[in-house]
């Protein structure tokens, strides 16, 4: 079974052209290259996924074949649809328990994202809204938020938008969604700019040392 979403790995939309995909690949490959992330064991795995995604999406025939398999085989697999708000809550609890007990470096991010989206499908969100149990709704949001810690910033943005459509919830739950999104954004910015920042600082220090001689 296909479980990897190569578009999500390269952080591009399914409608992206080859040039856009190539640009995304080069930027991500540079950011996660193992030589530049010796202190980050997750980088090597991420780099391999990025390379794998490019090898498929960068080839027209491979991309067409994968696209058909992924969207017509993977997304049409049987899923369990909840019939009550409590069913949705129980699904969110099982999801949280499943991923909280796993090795974070072995978690398939694409599978995790797909399962989160399944729990938060339109029918389930409607059930939560119609039932209107503020405590149950808040618990669902909390369970999902705690399951997003390994997702990319782009994925967390999408999940947060779904969570914000669940009403009513407690005020602190609304704040937790915003805090999660803010923390993920800060992490994304840090990972993206830490190397350029380090180079800039090193350059400034060298310049100061040369001028002080």
From TrEMBL:
Residues annotated as transmembrane: 193-212
Domain J: 5-75
SMART domains according to UniProt: DnaJ
One annotated GO biological process: ERAD pathway
Keywords: Chaperone, Membrane, Transmembrane, Transmembrane helix
Molecular function per GO: misfolded protein binding; protein-folding chaperone binding
Gene3D superfamilies, A to Z: DnaJ domain
PROSITE patterns xref list: DNAJ_2
Protein name: J domain-containing protein
The species this protein was found in: Filimonas zeae
Species classification: Bacteria, Pseudomonadati, Bacteroidota, Chitinophagia, Chitinophagales
